[in-house]
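Hey, resending since the last one bounced:
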Amino acid sequence: MNHVNTVRGAVEPAALGTTLMHEHVFVRSLEATLNYSTTWESDDTRVDEAVRMLDRLADAGIDTVVDLTVLGLGRDIRLVERVAAATRMSIIAATGAYVLDRLPYQLAFNPPKGGLIDGLAAFFIADLTQGIAGTMVKAGIIKCATDVAGFTPDVTAVIEAAAIAQVATGVPISTHADAGTQRGLEQQQRLMDRGVDPARIIVGHCGDTLDLGYLRAVMDAGSTVGLDRFGMEQPVSTAQRIAVVEELCALGYADRIVLSHDAACHSEWMDPIRTAEENPDWSMFLVPEVVIPTLRERGVPEDLLDMMTVSNPRRLLTSPTATQQGDSL
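The structure tokens again:
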């Protein structure tokens, strides 16, 4: 039976509802957090804050958040479990690695058994089919990244491992791709060359550019674009990001678009005062409270709005070959 793994267990795809496809519960650099944190305060405080934020997001009409926090972003699945147990929001966890140039030294100096690529793939597959970090929580999506450094040996290893895990499990791959260098196109091609169906790829951060040629090339090759940084005013303003969605819908691409913010309930990477000054509207609430109403006012049909926020995420996240986690909710 088709299903989607969430932090609380496997659910039927129809239960996902309105979904934000690229968010984070907590972003941390664990070593820095443990030694020099100025904003973490305590686990209890941050869990309570996240629950309040996600419940408010549920009140705004969002049913599911995809948490793309993986190795390199401070994933702590036990904290996310606590949040998921207390909030009305469904959370989907990710596996993979956020590597922009080099792997963490632990993996570089002590590669996993079986070699770096196959070993990483085994880690990812175990997260998807057995559980993350000794828990019963199974990931429902794979994350990888390519930035301005391009395809360094370590970035390439993660891309290849992600492809192996995707082909083995059927779950989608969602990427971090630098839009300014159009990394998404080569990223997409490398994954396809390793057997990944382009329809199972979401090329992330495509909203960071106004180059419709780049976005259309990604979609014409069969993949979905993540217009997923609403609220960030750099390098593209919120108004410009909304205009891109409107234009792509008019061109017939709504079936290959998902919307999100790349925001976090709490990020140790960000100075809260500076972030509020530079990006005052950057939160998980902008899509339901501003973006969708604005697109509706501009005449984007309701079925296309539903496509980008409900049916596209449901199609992408449904993985008939993945192993179910416990009983369905």
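The longest helix spans residues 43-59.

Sorry for the duplicate.
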